[in-house]
Specification:
Layout: H1 2-7, H2 11-23, H3 39-53, H4 57-74, H5 77-94, H6 98-115, H7 118-134, H8 149-158, H9 165-173, H10 180-193, H11 197-214, H12 217-228, H13 233-245, H14 254-263
Helix pairs in contact: 2-3, 3-4, 3-5, 4-5, 5-6, 5-7, 6-7, 9-10, 10-11, 10-12, 11-12, 12-13, 12-14, 13-14
Amino acid sequence: MGLMTFRVGLLAEAEAIGTELMAGLSGQTAYGAVLRYDHSTVTRGNHALTMAITGRFDTALALVEEAVRDGARLRNPASFCYLVSSLACPVALWLGLDDLARSYVQRLAREAEDNRFTYMAELAAWFLRILDLRAGFSPPPLGLQPPLPHDRIMFITTFAPWCDAEAAARAEASAPHWATAEILRAHGEARRQAGHPEVAQALFRRALALAEEQGSKLWALRAATSLAQDLPREDALRLLEPVLAGIEGDVRYGDVRKARAVLGA
């Protein structure tokens, strides 16, 4: 239930559900009826997604590290691969902790290969490519089928240059969901690079407004940072400082560093 409310962008509700589920964890192993995912580790991982997007970076990181540690100890390959691919890798990438993300991807790749989880192995390959691109490398083509639509959305939130016109059009044509604000911002960055600063500014403002409406403080920080880059310093300060004040975390995290760099702090 919490994950479903998260996906449609109801972050306050997702946080409330996640908090309730976290309070009910017994510390004992319990599995879902169908996929046999460990309830305790997956619940913590799901809650970490919400914490990251709502700006609780320190909390999200602590939850993910604890869940991955416990998930490895339980030795449930299906549960562990889901935890790492859908929760731990995205959170680490969102937070700008690429070394941690790479360690998770490597563990995912090994576990997927050992258990012949083809889909999970492909996710590991995609994440590794994103990490290489973020590091400035030019890796060769993967030779894989295009990612599934929901995976593509996740990948765009970890590497904005993958937001193309088709992804932007899908976001425009759909009801707002958990990643819409970041897709709008990523599209704005593409339009700015293409020499259309006014279009970009409009997209950044839309992204910021939607992110603030949803309580998506991570996306709000990114949108405000993108917007502030073209503003006079005083205007940038007025825009960015309140957004930064709502973030739990310091310059250890990539988006906080970028915002501080824009402010020259």
